[in-house]
Amino acid sequence: MAYTTSDLVSAVLAIGALGTAAFGLVDASKAFWGGVSNAGFGFISSFLDEVVPKNGKPPAEVALTLEAMRDTLRASWLNGAPLADQKSAAKSLVKLQLNAETAADLAKTMGVDATVMVAVATRLQTAHPLEPEQQNVYGRFDLVLATRIDRAYQCADQRYRNTSKVAACAVAVILAEVAAWSLQAPPPAPQGGALYLRALIAGLLATPLAPVAKDLASAISTAAKAVQAIKGRA
User: Fold this and answer.
1) Can you tell me the distance from the alpha carbon of 53 to that of 58, in angstroms, rounded to the nearest whole number?
2) Are 124 and 148 contacting, i.e. CB atoms less than 8 angstroms apart?
3) Alpha helix positions (H), 56-131
């Protein structure tokens, strides 16, 4: 059976629409306890476990426990707040834990001088200006903290995107196979196995094609017209 350019364009658009529908269903899972949005947050949670002081306690005026910080960052993550805002919030929450009791632990975690960091925390609490050496150590502390936060959020974002794509691919395959089953009239047609195989291929191609389906269909149509024009002049 010969396929025309119109058939190919229609197939590309249909497969792209299947991918879009699959992404939509995966995104709808967020209504159920966060759904796919939970993917990746483990990196952020592990970061908090590493950097929040295990000894001492946060300043009395802050009163933020580790779990409270985790819940705050998780809420922003599930709601899809801009990554820059989430990183800024994480950095601020960690810095709010800095006092004379927690400074040594934080300094050890960030690889800076603990004694100087205790002095820095004391001066920050009493609103006294920092000495040059203290400014240097505090600057290094800030840089390391920002780097670790960025790493945690980049890993989390990559895990979320990859999980979403894999989940959408699985949903697309299921939808395609269900459609193939619905097209089978009882008793099963002789070509039923081939139809299910085509449905599987369409499902696997759906998510990669979804973002570019319209452009690809347009490119195929344009290429076909170009070939026809060349053929007509030959």
Assistant:
1) 9
2) no
3) 66-78, 83-95, 103-110, 114-125
30-44, 47-61, 106-120, 159-173: range with lowest mean pLDDT? 47-61
Helix (H, G, I), strand (E, B) or coil at 87: helix
Alpha-carbon distance 212 to 217, whole Å? 8
CA-CA distances (angstroms) from residue 79 to 27, 36, 89, 117? 12, 12, 14, 35
Give the burial string for 55-79 (b: 16+ CB within 10 Å, else e): eeebbeeeeeeeeebbeebbebbee
Cα(105)–Cα(20) distance, integer angstroms: 48
What lies within 8 Å, CB to CB, of 144 at 6+ separation is: 110, 111, 112
Q: What is the pTM of this model?
A: 0.80
pLDDT tens figures, 75-108? 999 998 999 999 999 999 998 888 888 888 888 8
First to last CA, the chain: 26
